[in-house]
Amino acid sequence: MVIAQSGGPSMVINESLVGAVLEARKSARIGRILGARHGILGILDNDYIDLRKPSAAKLKAIAETPSSALGSCRRKPDAADCKAIFEAFRARDVGYFFYIGGNDSADAARIVAEEAEKANYPLVVYHIPKTIDNDLRSCDHTPGFGSAARFVASALKGDDLDNRALGGVKIDVIMGRDAGFLTAASALARERPNDGPHLIYLPEVPFSLARFEKDVLACLKRFGRCVVAVSEGIRDEKGVSIGAQFAGGEKDSHGNVQMSGTGALGDYLAKVLKATGKVKRVRADTFGYLQRSFPGVASSVDQKEAFAAGQAAVKAALAGRLAKGTIAIARDGGARYKVAFVPRPIQEAAKFTRSVPKAYIARNGHDVTAAFLSYARPIVGALPKCTVF
Amino acid sequence: MVIAQSGGPSMVINESLVGAVLEARKSARIGRILGARHGILGILDNDYIDLRKPSAAKLKAIAETPSSALGSCRRKPDAADCKAIFEAFRARDVGYFFYIGGNDSADAARIVAEEAEKANYPLVVYHIPKTIDNDLRSCDHTPGFGSAARFVASALKGDDLDNRALGGVKIDVIMGRDAGFLTAASALARERPNDGPHLIYLPEVPFSLARFEKDVLACLKRFGRCVVAVSEGIRDEKGVSIGAQFAGGEKDSHGNVQMSGTGALGDYLAKVLKATGKVKRVRADTFGYLQRSFPGVASSVDQKEAFAAGQAAVKAALAGRLAKGTIAIARDGGARYKVAFVPRPIQEAAKFTRSVPKAYIARNGHDVTAAFLSYARPIVGALPKCTVF
């Protein structure tokens, strides 16, 4: 078998890798367990790690380490890539391919699987879900989201306390190109009625600068201060991204515009508020890559689920459930939080994304509902308690 | 007594507040314990919290909460402010004034103390040190620094792993207007010889764009990737701040230009690298206010020392050691880490700042020395272990 990681890293993507590897080690039907470095690039470059070698203790330590231990890539395979992949696989007698990543990685795995069928190369392909954006249609929630959300909610807790001390407006720009789940999770920071974030802007609600100004001024009037959580992916009424104009237009081979790794959107929103002349102190922070890589803040539920998703993919592949599958995560509707890992056709995870449902967005357009909080809380886990006078 | 907090918040400034309050509660010579909200503004506005009221459990919870629980300000008191302060103090029979903050706060406390002498108002004034910048001349290191450094070093650990996965250049902009201690602390992130940060730029070393480009290209050649830690306070050969030109020119009443709360410096450095045409992927993050407010990552040594500094100030004031003092933190030169809290004249902490000593800066101008690591390690404490293949 070959396993690889693709797309943006997360705090728990290595849990999925190790879950899959330890499950595979249990089976007599798996020979070599090869980890391709930097996704499919490692297959094309013949760059592998022998995953039978590391001790269980080393694998455990890697599982608990953020980012993609095998390295990652953002390559969409074309027909030529696939041909080269099957040649490489044939030379090593590879019958199973596991790809851990988001919707683009699922799509890459789907392409490999379909091209394998066309080429009559016998290959079982499983996608293992991962994305901090939480936007896979196949999952109630995705591994990686809970931990990134825990970082965001913790950060907002601290930032709200900072804003209490010095006042004014604080804008925090949060990851999520297409879906606002991570920005919505900032609401988990609140312990008291006057805690921030006071305003939450998601890509799912058309963003208007005029309304933003109005919202902020109303908040200043009410609380004497204002903490704003805003998604990097906010769009205007025409669906045009507000942030993309500042981001330099860099695109990956899936066609995604680079959004993160720049503070321009936050600075722009701060400038807009300062220009009103009605707000004295405005600061903007863009949380950036720390949201997916900061060590020591992972959600323990997220860690366990990421591990289980990796295990489930290998189990399903060995059981011959589907030739090309993904592991869907389904939540039991009961009062106690419980999830199931279900093999589903890979198409259900590929390419298309899921938005924050309407039921999770407050009517005023700048907050989340209690239903969202109930949804997110068990995934994110307990947050540090913060006390004020 | 009146106690207040001033300047930028930190993760442990409330430890100092609670240390002082609990120490004061032990003494029969202290009557009311009043916490002024938002520094001296609370005295001018008659806005106090009765600090005899909260239970020990509540105070403990507040000590562990980041940011300034009494609120903060950046006001430099003038003669009129002082006159109003003494009137307010006289009305409440205030004999002791404690001010927790950095060098500007020490200077504010010094002004209050000197004006009190001139006005024949009997007042013992103690400054309690706090600053994440670690730039008080009176202290081996300052409460607040160890915890902010722990955030920075943890962040760099995660970010270095992220950069391993996706490659290219990552620039992290770190707080510190005048002193590079916090940026230097990024070096604590390294566990392995090829770990980032690979380049560290401090305000103490004149920054040249040409040399920066050269350093980055050499690093890419050597490691195939490059993680840069750069201080928000870097200056060119003429001593002109590189970042200040982007920061909008906002100043506080101590004359400090606003540097944080914008991503412009990082974006500028990324643009410079992209413009060379020799670097494919460049991302920049500005860590911003999370460095001083993120809950749950405080250094336990820093917490204890911040608490002890608050206690020491009250003890020294009650012992009548100095009419206007500060608590200096001195490190025992022995092999085992040990510090002493020493009452010193307030002038030693006020106004002027301390830079990173030459012995802590590597000769190449873009790294720190082993001496710095030995200095910083016990203050910052253990960091999460990260494992790679």
What does this structure look like?
Two copies of one chain form a homodimer. Chain A is built from twelve helices and eleven strands. With 389 residues, chain A is an alpha/beta fold. Chain A has two domains: 195 residues, 3-Layer(aba) Sandwich (Rossmann fold), CATH 3.40.50.450; 173 residues, Rossmann fold. Chain A has a seven-stranded mixed sheet with strand order 3-2-1-4-5-10-11, sandwiched between helices. A four-stranded parallel sheet of chain A has the order 7-8-6-9, with helices on both faces. In chain A, helix 5 links the parallel strand 4 and strand 5. In chain A, helix 4 crosses helix 5. Chain A is elongated, with a radius of gyration of 22 Å. Chain A starts with a strand and ends in a 9-residue tail after the last helix. The interface between A and B is large, with 65 and 65 residues.
Topology:
2 copies of one chain form a homodimer.
Chain A: E1 2-5, H1 13-25, E2 34-36, H2 40-44, E3 48-50, H3 56-63, H4 79-92, E4 96-101, H5 103-118, E5 124-129, H6 145-166, E6 168-174, H7 181-184, E7 199-201, H8 209-223, E8 225-231, H9 264-275, E9 282-286, H10 290-293, H11 300-318, E10 324-331, E11 339-345, H12 370-380
Parallel strand pairs in A: 1-2, 1-4, 4-5, 5-10, 6-8, 6-9, 7-8
Antiparallel strand pairs in A: 2-3, 10-11
Helix pairs in contact in A: 1-3, 1-11, 4-5
